[in-house]
Amino acid sequence: MGNVGNTLLNTMAAAITLNVSPALLKKWRGKGEGPRFLVLGERLVRYSAEDLQAYLETLKRKSCTAGDIATPLCGVDPASQCTAEEKETVR
Predict the structure, then answer these.
(1) What is the pTM of this model?
(2) Residue 56 and which of 19, 20, 42, 88 are 20 to 30 A apart at CA?
């Protein structure tokens, strides 16, 4: 599985590392999203520092578009990328 010496973080420490809430990490776990995690025993959740770093690497972008989809976080209105027909279906 990897380096046993790798630092394991609880949910709160992982949330602080990623600058998200512990509730969001819990939500991601339930949906199969976010960083990989370990379950020790029945309920003890831990994140490896290595896996958190790997997850952050997957989020890096070179531009404000992911494929052809614009993101509002980059100041681009995704609706401006839609055709007139697509805009009508949203309304």
Answers:
(1) 0.66
(2) 42
